[in-house]
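User: I'm putting together notes for a lab meeting next week and I want to include a structural view of one of the chains we've been expressing. I don't have a solved structure, so I'd like a prediction I can at least talk through. The sequence is below, exactly as it appears in our construct file.
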Amino acid sequence: MQENTLHDRPDSFGWVSILVHWVTTIVIITLWFIGRSITEQDSLEAIDARRSLHVTIALSAWLALLFRIVWRLRQGHPRASGQTMFIHRVARSVHYVMLVVIAAMMISGPVVAFAGNQGLVGFALKIHATAASILFALVLIHIGGTLKHIIFHEDDTIVRILWPRKK
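Assistant: Thanks for the context. Below is the predicted structure for the 167-residue chain, given as structure tokens.
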């Protein structure tokens, strides 16, 4: 009998989580760099072009990001082998806060792009920019935790987000 490696197990991510993790990673990094570059442009045409690219990619990825949030909430968060409950809770909390921040960006971004009310656009833009900064900090914490596992623990934390663990 072949084991199901699509869904997460208590100690392992499945293929769906792995794929969605890396797609989300690529999308978020791409959007962050394009978003940061919008204000660095000299001409209005360049600003509009970068903003349009940012909005197009974000709207194209909106359903994938929503799926990522719903999937993680439904699947839970597998625990790494040898991880204490306290560290597991910290890691899980960072991941869930990242999902909340991504959701805030998914709501505020379209408001910025499509709302006609200038006051609402300004408020949504502030939320969007603040959420981007928070997400950046959380990603650094996430990467730091990953490096901690590579350097100090030499465990399978990296492998489990690349390939599902066999029973």
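A couple of points you could mention at the meeting. The domain at 15-160 is CATH 1.20.950.20 (Fumarate Reductase Cytochrome B subunit). Residues 100 and 124 are 15 Å apart (CA to CA).

User: Perfect, that's what I needed.
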